[in-house]
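User: Predict structure, ligand D-glutamic acid.
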Amino acid sequence: MSKLPIGIFDSGVGGTSIWKEIHSLLPNENTIYLADSANAPYGPKGKEAIIKLSIKNTEYLLSKDCKLIVVACNTATTNAIDFLRKTYSVPFIGIEPAIKPAALQTKTNAIGILATKGTLSSALFSKTSGLFANNINVIEQVGEGIVQLIESGKLHSDEMIVLLKLYLKPMLDANIDYLVLGCTHYPYLMPLLIDLLPSNVKIIDSGEAVARQTKAILGQYDLLNTETVHSKNELFTNGNPVVMQSLLDGKFNVDYLDF
Ligand code: DGL
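Assistant: Predicted complex:
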């Protein structure tokens, strides 16, 4: 059982930011990654549609005998993980915007959250925000168009800089000192964000925490792969493999798969 793969899915290539953290913390683990780029972005879709797509991705991963599934997408986690956990017996790990550490550490009492419409309008996000950031000025910003640019290979483009400047402006006007990245595509923006933000603004991304949680849950279920032979990592997209390959620095093979 422990040799079975970890399944990971996202609406597209962004979840590879999580896959990298998992692969680096748990190099013995076999993995299957699904980028549902043909259906990206999930952000503007409604809850029902996001649940339907999450079911499709989960069922493919379960057909490959995955022992645990990582929903490497804030939008799918905040809209569909409750349904997935109720429906399937395999353990699920999700990701949601890390409001808590930002809210606990802010000195200016203002934090920014950049995420998709689907995440910011979810009940799970309101609940977490209400719990931890009640007395804090939370500047929520939908990152409209960012996922599409990354999916089409335009991560480093003038269009991206224009969008980021526009989205960061209200946050900077409110004097934020923490920016929470609420979408797994956004860690790829890190060099651009560092350039555009003043040095006192810290950027929070929860990729590493997801990898640690994956390890903890595998340990709890006695599912950690202790074999030291080379792990098998299968990375699939139903979009353009070249875009995903470039985000992985050409170090891993990416195959087209119609799933
Ligand atoms: N990576 C997804 C997330 O974390 C992007 C969502 C989308 O496709 O809009 O939310």
